[in-house]
Amino acid sequence: MDAITKLQAMTPEQRSKLQWNDPMLDALADKLEQADGLPQYSLRALKFAENTGYKDGKIEFTKNDSTKVSPAGAKGLMQFMDNTQKLQGGMFKHNHLDPVESLAAASRYLKYTLNNQYKGNVIAAFADYNGGPPAANNVLAGKKPPKKETINYLEKIKEFYKVNK
Question: What is the DSSP annotation of the chain?
């Protein structure tokens, strides 16, 4: 049984207990990227950035699962804010406790921002994912994002790509 079939056979509650770096979720991320025409490893990079810490200039690995809620209120595997789920008529709405739904929503969001807002600039789309349009607009203008959190976020994504190329 392949990873996608295993995920489909699990209940949302069972899936919610999977850790962010479970290979089955990586397989799903790969499938979603292909289906949505996203750059290779873009969802894995987002998943990595959303589920690792950054302390004293170093990336820290965590054991986060889909029940995680950030201090700012971002929820689930892909750390969606409630307001983000409401954008574009609810296009990104999902059950944040289900990592399968969370990854699918992240794929739709990244596809939307890449195609409709940032003309294929994946770094701007990553900056938007974490820091919103102001961060992405700075990236497009050749500047650093305005918040340290987003600067660190982009560093984690760059580190992910260094290791996974």
Answer: --HHHHHHHS-HHHHHTSBTT-HHHHHHHHHHHHHHTPPTTHHHHHHHHHTEEEETTEEEE---BTT-B-TT--BTTTTB-HHHHHHHHHTT---TT-HHHHHHHHHHHHHHHHHHTSTT-HHHHHHHHHHHHHHHHHHHTT---SSHHHHHHHHHHHHHHHHT-
- If one counts the domains in the chain, the total is 1
User: What is the CATH number for 96?
Assistant: 1.10.530.10
Domain of 19 in residue numbering reads as 3-163
What would the pLDDT profile of 59-115 be if each residue is shown by its tens digit? 888 877 788 877 887 788 888 877 776 767 766 677 888 999 999 999 999 999 999
pTM for this prediction: 0.90
